[in-house]
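Renewal narrative, Specific Aim 1. Our central claim is that a sequence can be written position by position from structural information alone. The example that follows is taken directly from our test logs and has not been curated for this report. It begins with the structure tokens describing the chain, in the order in which they were read.
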């Protein structure tokens, strides 16, 4: 996926946006605005909107740092990196060659979730210094802390081509010495993870629909 809007470059790595990024950016700002309004109804609309936009921007900065970590490690190992693109589903580092050793694959994959985890922990530490719990600064860094820890955890799921799946491939590759076999096994693990995700999503939707219907029925009976 190629960037359609250039944001510049860092360490010689181009960073840009795909047009689809605006969809997720709008949804995140909308969601944050609703969340901040619900938890702090005394805040004015202007404060809530500016806080939501600022928080969303910092979240995307953290996504860039996650991808930049992958790319910097790749470049340090001699692999060319074309660019980093933010799009509707997150970010992607466009590394033009595959790693040549299991060790290289492991560190290229692991450094992304590690970066997100460090950002999350730093944000949660800052939340303790950001004043009272209901302050805008506290709300911002707390959300950023938890979302980055969630991002780190999600990316460690052993489903190829997530970072966790690449870590799994690196470990199998290191153990067997066979990159093709490790790729097949990691891909199968990814299919299993995807199947579990589909089942969980169906259960969630079914439960949500049932609860919604129960709520409507209770309202009608009331």
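The sequence written for that structure reads:
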């Amino acid at each position: 996926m190629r960037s359609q809007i250039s944001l510049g470059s860092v360490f010689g790595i181009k960073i840009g946006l795909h047009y689809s990024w605006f969809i997720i950016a709008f949804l995140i700002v909308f969601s944050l605005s609703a969340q901040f309004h619900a938890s702090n109804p005394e805040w004015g609309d202007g404060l809530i909107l500016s806080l939501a936009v600022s928080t969303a921007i910092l979240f995307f900065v953290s996504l860039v740092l996650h991808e930049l970590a992958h790319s910097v490690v790749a470049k340090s190992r001699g692999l060319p990196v074309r660019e980093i693109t933010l799009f509707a589903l997150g970010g992607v580092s466009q590394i033009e060659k595959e790693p040549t050793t299991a060790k290289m694959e492991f560190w290229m994959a692991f450094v992304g979730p590690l970066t997100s985890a460090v950002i999350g922990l730093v944000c949660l530490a800052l939340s303790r210094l950001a004043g009272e719990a209901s302050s805008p600064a506290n709300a911002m860094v707390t959300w950023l802390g938890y979302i980055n820890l969630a991002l780190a955890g999600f990316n460690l799921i052993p489903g190829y081509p997530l970072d966790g799946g690449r870590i799994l491939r690196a470990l199998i590759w290191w153990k067997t010495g066979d990159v093709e076999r490790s790729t097949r096994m990691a891909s199968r693990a990814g299919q299993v993870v995807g199947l579990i995700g589909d089942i969980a999503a169906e259960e969630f939707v079914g439960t949500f629909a049932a609860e919604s219907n129960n709520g409507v029925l209770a309202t009608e009976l009331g």
